[in-house]
Amino acid sequence: MSRTVWTWARIAGSALILAVLVWRLGTGPFLDGVRSVDAGALAAAAGIAALTTVCYGWRWKVVARALGVDLPLRSAVAAYYRSMFLNVTLPGGVVGDVHRGVSHGRDVDDVGRALRSVVWERVAGQAIQILLTVVVLLALPSPVRSSMPVVAIVLLAVALGIALVVRARPHGDIRRALLARSAWPGIALTSPVIVAGHAATFLIAARAAGVTAPVSRMLPLALLVIAAMVLPSVGGWGPREGVAAWVFGAAGLGAQHGVATAVVYGVMMLVASLPGAVVLVMAWFRPVRPAGRAQPPLRRRPARA
Fold it and tell me: What global pTM score does this model have?
């Protein structure tokens, strides 16, 4: 499938999900979500995003360093803010990640290794997020609790398969980038903080949307919706609202409240990513590093008379 076809398929899929939600629930939940956003929720989202973005940058830094790529923490945090802004404003949800990988690669003259550091940093984060989500869903009641033992067994089998691959390839990227002593402590420390930050933001969005269920009931739903955000979308919109409508409805909280909460969350994340727009604008005015100095032309000696 070509890139153009895949892009249009993402746009069409997200639009279809939103159209079905409007058809079934009307525009009310979407408008209620927008109206529910207040200054307190936006300030909380910005503060939490600052913490999680520093953790994102630190995680990326330790993975890049394990792969032999230099990356200062300040540059990593700025690039991650820019990546977040691009991800929530452009189709696909990964444009920002590709951009920060290519940009960093050009800075260090190794685009391939820089892109690999981005990929493995994201893989590590998704793996820990899945692990934490499964643990919470096993412990707390949710619409999918009955199927979680099977999911846990499947994930255990996948983990064993990965362990066999790592053992067979001791010099591969997984061992170097994720399991190295210089990398895994930072990954293990920052990733739960990031997941907790996203979950806390979603819970604040739910309260702003008027959902009063206790945290023990809301946390599994929050993690399910956050997990759905890895699906292809347009700036995060579409699958997030669809899964939120489903899990809230299945939990007896009302599908309309799920959509309203997802809308509030989307607006909060957009506002929290605005520092990335500043980074993007500043990058436009940054002097372009010359590729190299050209050799001065040879001067001809004047001919003797």
Answer: 0.89
**Phi–psi pair at 184, nearest 5 degrees:** -65, -35
Q: Any idea where the domains of the chain sit in the sequence? A: 17-282
From first to last of its 305 residues, the chain has per-residue pLDDT tens of 566 666 677 778 888 888 999 999 999 999 999 999 999 999 999 999 999 999 999 999 999 999 999 999 999 999 999 999 998 888 766 788 998 999 999 989 999 999 999 999 999 999 999 999 999 999 999 999 999 999 999 999 999 998 888 888 877 888 888 888 888 999 999 999 999 999 999 999 999 999 999 999 999 999 999 998 888 777 788 899 999 999 999 999 999 999 999 999 999 999 999 999 999 888 777 665 544 443 344 444 444 43
Cβ neighbours for 4, distance < 8 A, ≥ 6 positions apart: none
Alpha carbon distances (Å) from 159 to 67, 214, 235? 22, 33, 31
Length of the chain counted residue by residue: 305
